[in-house]
Write a structure and sequence with these properties.
eight-stranded mixed beta sheet; 19 helices; globular
Length: 393
Amino acid sequence: MKICAVICELNPLHNGHRYIFEKAREATGADRLIALMSGHFVQRGTPAVTDAYSRAECALACGADAVIELPVVYAVAAADKFASGAVNILRTLPVDTLVCGAESDNGELIDIAAHIRAEEPETYKSALRACLDSGLSYGRAVTEATAATAAGQGADGESVRAMLSKPNNILAVSYRKAIVETRSDMDFVTIKRAGGDISESFSGTFSSASAIRKILDDDTVSAAMPAKSFEVLRRERKEHFVRSDEFGALILAALRDSAAERIEDTPDCAEGFSVKIKKLADSSASFDDFMFSVPTSRFTRGRIMRICLQNLLRITKEMQASGYNCARLIGVRRGARDILGLLPQNIITDVRSESAIPAHWLPCYEAEKRASDIYSLITHRPAKFRRRLITAD
């Protein structure tokens, strides 16, 4: 059986996601497609618009055969850790090809950037230090250092820089980098996303997830979503929508309850910045006030949101670097249950496989439970860390 995988958030699932699923099967000739999907919280450090189970329901209705939840220690991580954690899990599965949607379908440029990032030649390290010393954010510094190194190797540095200015391309490079670093024999295929570059403006059929989120309760978003996805979105938003104020209050309460040393131990925090976070958390009247005051040129809003959420979920640097590769199977299509027999022990399908998690990885699994509990609080849903499989026709 030939299996391909797509790493995704589906926040929410839109026509572009369904397009990637369709093209992934077409490009790889796969018999089965696994979606490795972020759970209740996503990489931006925010709650997903609907919970993991409802998004898995959409994925199974729109082209996926099985949905495995990307552990929260990686789902709320920066791009490289997000990618390496996901690839580390996929390497345990019988996956032949990782398929990624990107703004570019130039595999050569992606490969050049990925090898530079994986091998880190001295020219790259030197350029990165210089960019960081000049005050650039880490993400921007990585882009500039990669482009400069590529140019020094005879590649088109400007094309590399332009390619790395697009968010899905950055993730594609991170996925390819993880495959190179682990010497995985997994094939890697990029598919150019439909609808052109990501835009914050709603543009109809192939609008981006971020554009859809801006007008989430406007029925015009149905034009950009498969019917099942729109139906589930409306069903979930009716009662179990995210209460942003309540989420912000939980974040601020956790920061106030944490010592600066604990905040500094979150994966996205850097030495010394925790003192500023702690001081502002203690003095801010609301989470909105806090977020207005805390970002800097080096620490973007997204990175700060990840630090805040990592602190709330008690995710530490050690947990994210532990090599944790257990992940819950949260959905399987009824007609694809043959895939169950191919899953290794680290994929959690029931209470028995849950009990087999090695003791040193239990803090990572506890973070999953904590994320589920917190999401239930901010969506006014009874607490339930579900273990049963979801099935769909």
